[in-house]
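tl;dr need the bound structure. longer version: we got a ligand (LQZAQKY5) that a collaborator sent over and nobodys looked at where it sits. i said id run it. heres the input, straight from their email, havent touched it
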Amino acid sequence: MSSKWLSLEHALEKAIDATSILGESETIELSRALGRITASEVHASLSVPPWDNSAMDGFAINAADSREDTLMPIQGTITAGMAEDEPLKPGHAIKIMTGAPVPPGADAVVMVENTHTKGNSVTINKLPSSGENIRKKEADIKIGQSLVNQGIRLQPQHLMLLSSQGLTTVDVVKQVKVGVVATGSELAQPGEPCLPTQIYESNRIGVSALLSELGVEIIDFGIVKDDEQSLTALFKEASERVDVMVSSGGVSVGDADYVKDVIDALGSIDFWKVAIKPGKPFALGHIGNTLFCGLPGNPVSAFVTAKLLVTPLIRKMQGEQQVRKPLTVNATVTCDIKRRAGRRDFQRATITYDENFNLLVTPFRTQSSGVMTSITAANCLMIIHEDISHVEKGTTLPVIPFDLLSPESDL
Ligand SMILES: Nc1nc2c(c(=O)[nH]1)N[C@H]1C(S)=C(S)[C@@H](COP(=O)(O)OP(=O)(O)OC[C@H]3O[C@@H](n4cnc5c(N)ncnc54)[C@H](O)[C@@H]3O)O[C@H]1N2
Ligand code: MOO
């Protein structure tokens, strides 16, 4: 492997070190907080459940006081939302609904399915033990306990938890401002005419969508031609407006590849070239406090480097407690693969199952980084280590699924 390329680990380590946590926070509506990062720990101000309540529709009884197959008078009915302070009389049962408060004197609930009602009396077919079907006060949450730590990305379940405390707002880290620009004199704006010498620009929308999943604010800087003056003006403006600038194109060694030189002239290049395929010419730099991520122009390379190298940096900037790596699962390769060793390969591939639900992975027929249909046909990236030049059919390789849904499942 050429020493002038950084390994992915080394590049990530350098990039993460070069990225600072933004730190500013704001208070926002819980209903808009999905995907945002908590700026402070949230503590409980209410206990949950607030009182002992029934886990089932049935009859509240005192277990020691009750017998199977014996008629017991029904003292009354308690539904959820009712206050019930009247104690259970010895030898009686109170009809109770799920969520309703357990009356004083009762210590178990028998499911309605295990009872037989006759007029205003009930017999119990199967006696519950003391405590059965009762959700104890504070069993879930005690006042003062930590509900969500600082630096947690809020998921739907966190919003439910905070809402259960009566909260309508939450303190989150301010949105990272991410600028996105496509560089290339050959690029036409979709919706506008495309000259015979042009192609439609497609990286911005994909990279913006991919990064939007992190709850950032995207600022679209459009398309800029491959000339030093235009790039200088644009990157200067970006360094005053955004926290991270993500460009695509112009980072290789062609005559019109000015991106690195312009960043270097205005600020600095931290590193250039990573031993990955696709995505080798990825460049990282700074202009003032703005981080610059120069993605390669080939659409597949732009997509893969945005996923592997840009998202961890944004997560760090947002103050996410743990900068997580993508989940990998092991799958068995369905064909022989020959390739040139030297770069870690993230091949576009499809995971499926065999009849025993073992994961199988099949690479897309072509791995050229210009072939965009390889990323839409694929459902994962299959990782081949930089040292390996021949993968035999039947070998197990790690893969990064694009999502965690499966076409077939034994659920
Ligand atoms: N002599 C060498 N040539 C190249 C090398 C190399 O090491 N030596 N590396 C190749 C690799 S690997 C990649 S990846 C590309 C990356 O080059 P650039 O980042 O300079 O990208 P461009 O040349 O500007 O564009 C490459 C390709 O992608 C198309 N493109 C660019 N931007 C967009 C966009 N926004 N939407 C759609 N398509 C886009 C562009 O038209 C080119 O076809 O360099 C190799 N060359
Ligand atoms: O690195 Mo390029 O992205 O291999 O095509």
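gonna send this back to them w/ a short note. The longest helix spans residues 299-317.
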